[in-house]
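Sample entry (386 residues):
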Amino acid sequence: MISTTEALADVVRRAREAGAVGVDTEFIWDRTYYPTLGLIQIGYPDCHCELIDAPAIEDWSPLAELMSDPDTVKILHDAQQDLNILYRTCGGLPKNIFDTQRSAGFVGLSSTISLSELLKTLLKVRLAKTETRSDWTKRPLTDAQLKYAEDDVRHSVDLMIKIMDKAESLGRKAWIEDEMEMYAVESLYGEVDPDSVMPRVRGSGSLTNQQRNILRALGAWREEKARRRNLPRSFILSDDALVSLTKRPPEKPEDIRQMKGLNERAANRNRDHIWAAIERGRAGDLPELPNNKHLGPSPDDGYEARVDLALACIKGTCLAGGIDPALIGNRADVTAFVLGIDHLDAGSHRMLRGWRADFCGHALARLLRGEGSVGIDPTTKLPKLS
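Predicted structure, serialized as tokens:
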């Protein structure tokens, strides 16, 4: 177990000399807002592994150097969550990331495939997934935990090579390299201003405009306090209590009392803050939400039919080409593309950038503008753009 900054620096030196390493994290996420990191695994091309004892490390600057090194490939599976944790730990902006899960979608597999299934499919390696609910902060770790952790990165480099060999044979190596650039975008790793989002709260449908503002204000207060105290949101104020306060807002601070999801002690301790948030919502003292709507005209009666047509064309093109349709975009992405088609410049929507544009974006844009056509390919029996 690597437990000192000096030993960590040596691990990083060897990783950079190798040029490519597997990276994974093990953490617990139970009674905190942020995941509690227990272990970081590094897997070398020769299948040797190093395990970094996260609670023991005081200075993470060597890891920051590795994560931001543009010349060393860091191979992760389902990379985003691990990268968020590593960025919060060491502050190094990720560069040269290879996501084995996402890249699998380019070579005829699902872009949400599990690591164990991917290893079994491409390398005939079987993992024993027996320690998924382990406490990774408890010491000493068991032999079973150590083996489990090492196995998650032992074959990372071989897996990347296998995927890229298949991609190269399909003419898609550059597509994967283009897609991996997404992980170098700094905005992926910063915390969102809670005032700038509508909180997702179970049971909060059918609200008036004022109630929506109250929900936003209460949600923003809850989010800030949860971050500050590193506690789950529900420990601050449950969704049930938030909805009750939103739909039946109190008339005075004294009306804020024990209810479902808000005990008496918490009500007394937070009464002034809850009341201030409710008053803020009533006054509408909130910034406008970012405009995530499409450019151009409002939805017309036929837009859903065009969205369905676009989704069918995307699915047909992807199935014929062995690409996971999820890589192109979800229904919201396609809806924005359809509704804004007459106002989109080249590159203003991700379907008109990079590999997506070449694969189906340009052809789909021509179709939606009335300049292209779609038919059924007699061989594949799938929709085909032309």
